[in-house]
C-alpha cells in the first residue's frame, strides 16, 4: 500500500511524519509506504510550530484564491503522475483543503480518469469555500462568517504564547459561533451539487476553532462511504493510546474500502 501524505500550512513532510507517528505505529501492516512530501512554497511556521520543530516550513499555496488552489491541484496531479499511484491520501489542515479540492476538480472536470487516490483520510481540515462556490455549491453566510472567525481564533489558540501559558487548555474552540449547533446542522450549511465519492475518513476535534470546517468537509462526501471521528481535542493529532488506536482503525477501514471499490 502506498500513502500520499499532505501536511498543514507552515509545517513540512518531516513534521507531519512526526505528528502521525503514534497512530501509524498501531497499523497492522508494517510495509505501508508513506510518502511525506513538502509543499512547493517556503512558509513562515504555523502558529506554535517553531516551539517544537525546526525549519524549513512549507505551504501548498500563497493565498487561497481559486486560481492558486487550482494551480496547486495541478502541481499535485503532476506529482502523482510522476510518483504514484497512491492508494490513500493522509492529510492535515491545509493538506485537507488541497486533497479535497483535487478530488472535487477531478470529479467535475476529468471524471473519465481514475481519481488521484482511492481513499482519503482528512484530519482537522475543511474544504476550500472559494472552490466550493466556484463549482456551484451553496455556502451559507453563517459558514463563511465562521470560516473567517475560526482562522483568527486558531492563530491565537495555537500560538506560542498560548502554548507556553495554557498548554492543552488553550483549545477552547469557537464557542460564540458553534455553540448549540449539532453536526447535522453544520452539514446543512453546505448544499452539494455533487459529492466526493471515494471512501473518506474525517477526524476532527470539538475544541478546534476549525471544528466546523471538518464537519463541512464530511458534508460534501458520500455518506455511504464516509466515517467521522471526534477526538475531542484541538487542532492537532492527539497521541494518546485510545485516539491513536481509533485513527489507525479508521485508516485501515478507508484503505480496505478504497481497495475494494477500485
Automatic annotation (TrEMBL):
Domain Serine hydrolase: 1-245
Domain of life: Eukaryota
GO biological process: antibiotic biosynthetic process; monocarboxylic acid biosynthetic process; secondary metabolic process
Cellular component GO terms, alphabetical: cytoplasm; nucleus
A Pfam cross-reference name: FSH1
GO MF assignments: hydrolase activity
Keyword annotations of the record: Hydrolase
Name recorded for this polypeptide: Serine hydrolase domain-containing protein
